[in-house]
Amino acid sequence: MNLKQSFRMAFKSIRSNRVRSLLTMLGIIIGVAAVIIMVSVVRGSNRHIKEYYERMGNNRITVSAEQWGGMDISQSLYDYCLSLGPLVYGVTPDITTEGPIIYRDKSTGDMENGSPSIKLGSVQYSLCNNFQIARGRDLCQMDIQSSQQVIILGARTAQYLFNYQNPVGKTVLLRGHPFEVVGVYQAKDPDSEYSMDNMAVVPYTLNRLLNRRDTVDSFTVRASSSETTAEVSSRVSGFLKGQIDTERGYFSVYSENQDMKASDDQNRMMSMVLGGIASISLLVGGIGIMNIMLVTVTERTREIGIRKAIGAKRKSILAQFLIEASVVCGVGGLLGIAIGVAGTLVAGQLILRAVVLPDLPMSAGAFLFSVAMGVGFGIYPAAKASKLQPVVALRAD
Amino acid sequence: MNLIEMEQIYKIYHEGLENEVRALNGIDLSIGRGEFVAIIGASGSGKSTLMNVLGCLDLPSRGTYHLNGKLASSMTDDELSHIRNVEIGFIFQGYNLIPALDALENVELPLIYQGIGAEQRARTAREALERVGLGERVHNYPSQMSGGQQQRVAIARAISTGAPILMADEPTGALDSKTGEQVLDTLHQLHREQGTTILLITHDNKVAAAAERVIRIADGRIVVDCPREEIAL
User: Fold this and answer.
1) What is the pLDDT, as a whole number, of residue A66?
2) A24 and A82, same structural domain?
3) Is residue A14 a contact partner of residue A328, using CB atoms and an 8 Å limit?
4) What are the residue ranges spanned by the domains of chain B?
């Protein structure tokens, strides 16, 4: 008996027993759908978090270092990072301060979700923190060297103060000092209210003016890739150990990739646990298939007898029942994938407020797995059918 | 060698136990090509067991059975399937059609197991159905046909492979006398026109009267074996 014929037979027998076939498939459908939804949603949330870190600027290393007694290490740290060559993408002082920015009658102190953080950075601030200029220009070396009172606004801050006007060229007041807006950054996180776009950057050389301090104690170093992040972290640590006497100062080197990795691990664990639970339901579905196939064999004993009487060999009967079981499972798997995709879209909207699509390899895998289960759980009933003696089978009602 | 050669065939159930049953008790039988033989006997006489052994549906406990020159008494399951497929066409009392398949698909079934391609298979099956007068009903399902029509589908299935032997087990048992006669006529026609060897198993003397040679079984032995003319039925 050829394969095409066997598949036609299998579909025929599924169709002639619609309700039962559907009930049989139900276990597989639910199992496959559950695996797809659970794993996809967990993966989707994982991707969500990763994207957040990426927008914030990944591979960032936060360095705090201070030597009491006034020595500023920013120049030597800068030089050291430069010496690391391609391992380092950029380095900038990264001091955070506050203070309302005022433009005419508007003050950021009145913003609903808090006033913007004011960053003191160098020309590499935007590079290190993944900001891009939307309007005007970025900080330049001149601004730093001559402590120009210029300011670059984050998208959210600019929008609050200027609405749809072009802020470039306007003058705002920061802690009472006039600053010229020279640029506006593109929004990194346009959907969020508490956003990383609610900020502004000024030259770090204005530290004295704004904070009454001469030394810079915090920096952001951005490594060139996630692979080099750990290496740069340890090298910078080593360098600072040599520079700073811990009796009279301190330093810390911290990479956000560690956070990301921790949340990654947590997510992977969750997806394994949920996937495991869903797999158990798939297994139960498979046992259901075996049960129904056994009933089918008993019910169709006479048919098996007829087939054997007119010349079916064992392997033909075996193939027929195996193909039937795997077609039932395969169709169940496809329905499960359809429901899983729909469920993932819905769950993605409800839980993550984002379009989450299950990935193709996993869906293909779920389908293949369910077919394999059909074969696996169909073997025993099929073997039982193939071993029936025609005389005995023909006597059955 | 004859088409069918049986020597000292025994079929014994529960051998050596108290409830031992000798369904076949030393059968010697030879049937030549082109014969039309009726095997008759009361129920419990062993004629169904004989039919099962003759039809390679069951193996004898002892003895040798050659079918078309092949030793059928010691074959494996799959070898028996093969020999049933190519040497024998079965016609059963209860038709034994598969309800989920239409007439054409039922007739195609033995051809499928022979591995014949779809196109030729459909053509052969259609021809067989036309020969039994069902050319118009190839796509009817068994449930849509009368008993006589179903039995003719079964005959078409039996002759579709061109097997040299037709075995009919009470082929008219479930039919009224008129359709029963039509079925017997069909068998006669096949015998006359194709020279098919026909084994007819029946308890009905009137049916047996259609044959050329009559074999009567009682208690697992052949008690009568003679031409039709020499026996009063």
Assistant:
1) 81
2) no
3) yes
4) 35-59+85-230
Same domain, A80 and A39: no
Tell me how far apart the alpha carbons of residues B13 and A79 are, in angstroms, rounded to a whole number: 100
Residues A340, A366: contact at Cβ < 8 Å?
yes
What is the rounded average pLDDT of the residues B168-182?
86
Residue A209 lies in a domain: yes
pLDDT of residue A194: 64
- How many Cβ atoms from other residues are within 10 Å of residue A270's Cβ? 16
pLDDT category at A136 given cuts 50, 70, 90 is very high
Q: Is B57 on the interface with A (CB under 8 A)?
A: yes
- pLDDT confidence of B176, banded at 50, 70, 90? confident
Q: How far apart are CA B102 and CA A8, in angstroms?
A: 13
Number of folded domains that form chain A:
2
pTM of the model: 0.69
Residue A263 has pLDDT above 80, yes or no: no
Residue A151, domain member (yes or no): yes
d(CA A135, CA B146): 88
**Could you tell me if B93 lies within 8 Å of chain A, comparing CB atoms?**
no
Superfamily for B35-59+85-230? P-loop containing nucleotide triphosphate hydrolases (3.40.50.300)
Q: Which H or E element spans position A324?
A: helix A314-347
Q: What letter represents residue B226's amino acid?
A: C
CA-only gyration radius of chain A, Å: 33
| Average pLDDT score over residue span A106-115 | 85
Task: Answer whether B85 sits within 8 Å of A394, measured CB to CB.
Answer: no
Mean pLDDT, rounded, for B149-169? 92
* A173 and A46 within one domain: no
Q: What is the pLDDT of residues A251-261, one digit of tens each?
A: 888 887 777 77
Q: How many Å apart are CA A275 and CA A384, to the nearest integer?
A: 33
Q: Which residues of A touch B (CB under 8 A)?
A: 1-2, 4-5, 12-13, 16, 302-303, 305-316, 389-391, 394
Angle at A129 between CA A124 and CA A135, to 5 degrees: 75
Q: Which residue of A has its CA nearest to B157?
A: A310
> Is there a domain that residue A230 lies in?
no
Q: Is B34 left (phi over 0), alpha (psi -120 to 50) or beta?
A: left
Which of A224, A244, A279 is the endpoint of a domain? A224
* A79 and A39 assigned to the same domain: no
A245, part of any domain: no
pLDDT value for B172: 86
Number of H helices, E strands in chain A: 13, 13
| A25 and A73 inside one domain | no
Pair (A142, A219) in one structural domain: yes
Return the DSSP state at B74. Answer: G
Residues A217 and A84 in one domain: yes
pLDDT(A354) > 90: no
Together in a domain, A48 and A98: no
Q: What is the 3-state secondary structure (H, E, C) of B159-172?
A: HHCCCCEEEEECCC
CB contacts < 8 A, A to B, total 65
Note down the domain range covering A151: 60-224
pLDDT at A1 over 60: no
* CA nearest neighbour of A394 among B87, B76, B154: B154
